[in-house]
Design brief:
homotrimer, alpha/beta, UDP-N-acetylmuramoyl-L-alanine:D-glutamate ligase, 11 helices
Amino acid sequence: MDIYSYLKAVREKKPLVHHLTNWVTIYDCAQVVKSFGASPVMAHAPEEVADMAGMASALVLNIGTLTTEFVESMKIAARAANAHGIPVVLDVCGAGATPFRDHKSFELMKEARVDIIKGNASEIARIAGRDVRTRGVDAAAVREDLADIARLLAKERECVAVITGKEDIVADPASLFLIRNGDEMMGHLVGTGCMAASVIGTFAGASPGGLAAAAAAGLACYEIAAELAVKGCAGPASFKERLLDRVFHLTEEEVSSMQKVTAEGAAAR
Amino acid sequence: MDIYSYLKAVREKKPLVHHLTNWVTIYDCAQVVKSFGASPVMAHAPEEVADMAGMASALVLNIGTLTTEFVESMKIAARAANAHGIPVVLDVCGAGATPFRDHKSFELMKEARVDIIKGNASEIARIAGRDVRTRGVDAAAVREDLADIARLLAKERECVAVITGKEDIVADPASLFLIRNGDEMMGHLVGTGCMAASVIGTFAGASPGGLAAAAAAGLACYEIAAELAVKGCAGPASFKERLLDRVFHLTEEEVSSMQKVTAEGAAAR
Amino acid sequence: MDIYSYLKAVREKKPLVHHLTNWVTIYDCAQVVKSFGASPVMAHAPEEVADMAGMASALVLNIGTLTTEFVESMKIAARAANAHGIPVVLDVCGAGATPFRDHKSFELMKEARVDIIKGNASEIARIAGRDVRTRGVDAAAVREDLADIARLLAKERECVAVITGKEDIVADPASLFLIRNGDEMMGHLVGTGCMAASVIGTFAGASPGGLAAAAAAGLACYEIAAELAVKGCAGPASFKERLLDRVFHLTEEEVSSMQKVTAEGAAAR
């Protein structure tokens, strides 16, 4: 799989990535998109989200600090994105922590088409119907094969399912990608999960090919930058600075030599 | 006082610290909690704050960018925290700047139990009934002994009162702690006060003992990290990065050798 | 033009700069004001914005993540600022991207006096009535002389018009300033435009003289810091850290030797 070709497409097409995201990591979500060479825009007023989604190449929704009104804006944006034919990414941040998050996630997926559902292990397990409880926004243990959960969710909802963790899993109904890049320092930094969703949106917005491959390529590039950034960092804050700088300068040589992506199913053929 | 034992408890118990905080420093509040080894979660929808507080170990409220609706969510969360038996920290950010902030602070304290009230000199003086005016969110001069104000407020409201500044004061009805750690660079960085409240919540959420001692220990650890961070920094922004990195790596040796905490009253016996 | 005298005034008067700004870059807007030696305060509740504006030296409005309710608070704050006699800066962030942003920008300018209107090329062109479309919050090409647009807008609305870009343009009805400082790295960092509006508010709030000259001086100082910061930075994130540090330490020697500000019209005489 030629991961670098996806990064090249992002840098050439500079997709506009419309976000309705949380208030904690909103800056970092914008900057990681910008560091990759694309254009982030954050807008959530119900009066303008359809217009903004209508000029964008991808829509990223993140329920990290959701409210009822905010989810109503998400629905309007998502339906506009559906009509406009651009991919919709949903980060089910904190699903499994409160019934409200579960309920709103399902409501969103019912009222608009979500192309890529992304979360950590317990978030996605909860969305796939398992009885697990996420600890705030941190993953809790799941006693089941995660690849199976992703595959089933992808088939059930005819979407791409992404589970981030030590090993990332990207599944669509026909294929499965495993990404073994990244570093445990990512778990000590607030926002690495949210940024991953923005990266997926960015690559999905620039990619002419399948969304699962684009998501896998985006995660690989982001996590290769993380591996480069962790060298010589002094802790989570200097890691973040280096990560956003490394994303900006990521080279073909780095991506090609460091990527650890494997594909199964249709994508491997 | 064995300050390090409190840090050790945070790292071992990894308390989940639920925040309803302001939109300016929300990321840094989350990251400082995470750098200390605990888990931050930010959630403010009225439909879920009780559930989130119910799975947390501490609740941190900060009125920095309050609205009427936001304070209603704070009340729901605080009452759930009270019922659940976890400590509630209130940062009265900007109290004394506008009547609205004063009014909402008193309303919050009336409608739910607040265990730890934290602010700078003029914020706490205002909450203690003095006629002072805070300059936006920056402390104004107070013509009265601050330790007396803290002690009186602690007795009147049967809580812990924390005044941050060059010398921090932590009082409960029976004891008084003075923390002489920190660096003046903290005054040039946006968010050091808000992060202090999050640190207090984190240590209070992990501590089996008294809340005043936990608050004092948390402030000492945070400000020792600040002293370490300021060495070789090039200004407020590099100071922040180093601070969040230093918190992450803080050692027993650093804490024990650098802490400048003194106790009076019951805590000193 | 003695640019340094404006910076000195900021550091001596430490103006309180009240913001109603967007949720993406709110922290950086606050920190850049603080790094310059002034005091930022962010407050948006309709119940308190008039009180906060009434104790401030300048008001900065930014529609980056506007909602109808938020703009109502902006109007209250702006009218209080008008009554109090302090300058009002409006960053028309994203004007030209959606009709909602255009409509709300015009509504704000109709219902309160705006002293300084600031944006990138396509945002200001749109506010000046041109038929251009901003790409999210990124400038689109404008086929017309930008200085002419700024001059006409300044005359039409009797205000200061600021267009940021490779070369910044500051016009009032009688004068025109060109600022040729800055670095292209600013275009790779989220928030440089928002911070510019906060800097303009800070300098306008401290300056006894004309607002256009204060805006030009503020932009020059900010962009000189950017030129210093870019040396040796490893990408956009380390650039930001260095920028906020350099602003903090900016010297008379740096400002005097590096400033590239030219004036035409009344200001040049």
